[in-house]
Design a protein that fits this description.
Layout: H1 14-17, H2 50-57, E1 69-80, H3 87-91, H4 98-104, E2 120-124, E3 136-141, E4 150-154, E5 158-163, E6 171-174, E7 191-193, E8 199-205, E9 212-218, E10 223-225, E11 231-238, E12 240-248, E13 253-261, E14 266-268, E15 271-275, H5 301-304
Parallel strand pairs: 1-14, 1-15, 3-5, 4-9
Antiparallel strand pairs: 1-11, 2-10, 2-12, 5-7, 6-8, 8-9, 12-13
Length: 307
């Protein structure tokens, strides 16, 4: 099979270029049809045909990878300047949402020992089609936040938004068609959101407009988003040489390392991102153009080179 080759660094330009070089595929357990004559499964939890999904996540009609796999885990940390507080952003958050003031008061979040939160980590460069395991990515609204400022999912998955406190939420996925908005009520069912293309979106809330999270819909499932501890773990990776990449949307910074995945082994890799406040003025945040990646296309090995 012709391998796909890419790194997550390509995501850092997706909002600016409308071309997307990510190209891995989803991990197991889904429904749906093939692209062309393939019977390989894809997650089909959005209102488009499974064939359209398969054409993006599995353009070569490959069967699901069934060989040996391994895992990778690690921590993402920051170096350089500490992010400044944003008094204008804090002023827009009402007193009843006091917890959100700390959550959104800086351009990005750090934990203990400068651990980096909300970092999108991905493993790319392996051979084989890996289908996504789950139909949906769960997002829990609590304390007038989404609990994260970055959401990542595989094309074909939907987002399920739940209210986990006493507040109602009215989520909106900017960049996707939404014929109607549905309220997520405390203790109620999840509100389902449907990204129908690979690319970049913005998750907002109509009731609490300061709530924002970058949403990246990718062509592969070997990804994770760090919490406040900066930690990540990704499993089900085909063995061989891969690239582990970290991307922080708020500052458009990436870091990556190459390593070899061994059967039934967990490789450990730590990544470090750099922030210089004096150079951050024009970089801004990716929230400014959530739908610029709407016309993305599958990348092939010939686009990104081979090992």
């Amino acid at each position: 099979m012709t391998p796909h080759r890419s790194t997550l660094a390509a995501i850092s330009v997706v909002v600016l270029t409308s071309s997307f070089a990510g190209c891995r595929k989803p991990t197991g357990g889904a429904q749906g049809g093939p692209a062309g004559s393939s019977s390989a499964p894809v997650v089909h939890a959005v209102p488009i045909s499974s064939a359209d999904i398969a054409r993006s996540v599995n353009p070569e009609n490959a069967p699901p990878y069934s060989g040996p796999t391994g895992s990778v885990r690690g921590t993402v940390t920051m170096k350089g300047d500490v992010a400044p507080e944003q008094p204008d952003a804090i002023a827009k958050i009402p007193e009843k949402c006091a917890a959100a003031r700390d959550f959104y008061k800086r351009p990005f979040r750090e934990g203990m020992m400068r651990s980096a939160a909300d970092v999108l980590v991905a493993v790319t460069g392996y051979d084989g089609y890996v289908p996504a395991r789950e139909a949906a990515r769960r997002v829990e609204a609590r304390g007038c936040t989404w609990g994260t400022r970055t959401v990542a999912l595989t094309f074909g998955q939907r987002i399920d938004v739940f209210s986990k406190d006493g507040e109602p939420y009215l989520p909106r996925l900017v960049g996707a068609r939404m014929p109607a908005q549905i309220v997520a009520v405390p203790g109620g069912d999840g509100v389902q959101l449907y990204p129908v293309k690979v690319g970049h979106y913005l998750l907002t809330d109509t009731i609490h407009p300061f709530m924002q999270a970058d949403v990246y819909v990718l062509k592969f499932p070997t990804l994770a988003v760090t919490g406040l501890d900066g930690k990540f773990e990704i499993s089900g990776i085909p063995v061989g040489e891969v690239t582990v990449s970290a991307f922080l949307p708020a500052i458009f910074q990436t870091a990556e390392k190459k390593l070899r995945i061994a059967e039934n082994q967990t490789a450990v890799v730590d990544l470090e991102l750099s922030y210089e406040a004096s150079k951050a003025g024009d970089a801004g945040t990716s929230l400014a153009a959530p739908s610029a990646a709407a016309s993305t296309r599958p990348a092939r090995a010939s686009d990104a080179g081979r090992r």
